[in-house]
Write a structure and sequence with these properties.
Length: about 325
């Protein structure tokens, strides 16, 4: 695999944002549209050394804008709902940076948007910036309606805990198992103020091209597409289509921060929602998606969406 990189637009945004905060860094040297991760690491070292605020990561997060995330940011902005935007962000995050991963999963009756960086340089402020930026953009894209239940970090606080609450506007916890943003499931249904499905579809084509240039037509995307085409197929069936073992499939997905169950549930949920919106019968949807009976499908659908198929259709 080629050396990990970060989009130049994002690195440049850090330099410009730091300047607005009174931190002057050397201008980035001209070059390709992407910079190596070690160059981006060096930028963070200079940033943390030049600033006197231990919460520099959060300060940066509150000044970053959607456009700083390149085509991935514009794609999120044009999504119809926050849930759709999160799905797309997890898929296209490598466009912004190959130095970390973003994913989300259920935590009880809440959803956790998680971040993990593949570096050791300035890890804590970068984790704080990533989640702070996610919250800031979610609020902006939803017209201020997004509400977080909490933000949780693995590390100890870098400054007074009250400052975290003031900057993020929600409870903040430390010593957590993951760096994550927690919110209630109904937030996924929030409509976005800049929704534009036609533009979203065009931007997705550009985003796919960007991933292709990165060598990041990711394995998880390939698996997702196969599940979409063969919704009744299990893990071993999908692995056979790829001419690999089920164990190898699981290992390759884990390298990208995914599990087969997560991807399959995501695709089945999308197929189920579209079928319900078309008015298909629940029994037919259940059979088409490979469930043993209607009850099994309804239980899964409620776990995915927090409501029954009938309630969703209504």
């Amino acid at each position: 695999m080629s050396e990990p990189t970060v989009t130049r637009r994002f690195s440049q945004a850090l330099v410009e944002t730091a300047a607005r905060l009174g931190i002057n860094l050397p201008a980035m040297a001209p070059g390709e549209e992407r910079v190596r991760l070690d160059v981006h690491d060096a930028l963070w070292v200079k940033l943390c050394a030049a600033g006197d605020d231990p919460l520099i990561g959060l300060q940066l997060a509150l000044h970053l804008q959607v456009g700083h995330l390149d085509v991935a940011g514009l794609l999120l902005m044009s999504s119809e709902t926050l849930g759709e935007a999160l799905e797309l962000y997890t898929e296209y995050h490598p466009i912004v940076s190959q130095g970390g991963e973003v994913w989300f999963h259920d935590v009880g009756d809440q959803v956790a948007l998680c971040y993990a960086g593949h570096y050791e340089v300035c890890r804590e402020p970068r984790a704080e910036m990533s989640l702070g930026c996610a919250m800031h953009l979610a609020r902006w894209c939803s017209g201020g309606r997004f509400e977080a239940a909490a933000v949780e970090f693995r590390h100890a606080p870098l400054d007074r805990e009250a400052r975290y609450t003031d900057l993020l506007g929600c409870p903040v916890h430390f010593g957590a198992p993951e760096d994550r943003l927690l919110f209630h499931r109904d937030m996924l249904e929030l409509p976005l103020i800049q929704a534009n499905p036609a533009l979203r579809d065009q931007l997705r084509e550009l985003a796919d091209q960007s991933l292709g240039r990165l060598g990041q037509r990711s394995f998880s995307v390939t698996v997702s597409e196969l599940v979409h085409q063969h919704p009744q197929a299990g893990k071993d069936d999908i692995a056979a289509l790829l001419a690999i073992s089920g164990r190898h499939l699981s290992r390759k997905l884990a390298e990208e921060g995914f599990s087969f169950k997560h991807l399959r549930d995501r695709e089945l949920q999308q197929l189920a929602c579209r079928a319900l919106e078309r008015g298909d019968k629940i029994a037919g949807i259940s059979a088409e998606l490979g469930f043993s009976d209607e009850s099994a499908f309804s239980r899964s659908f409620r776990r995915w969406t927090g409501m029954s198929p009938s309630q969703y259709r209504a």
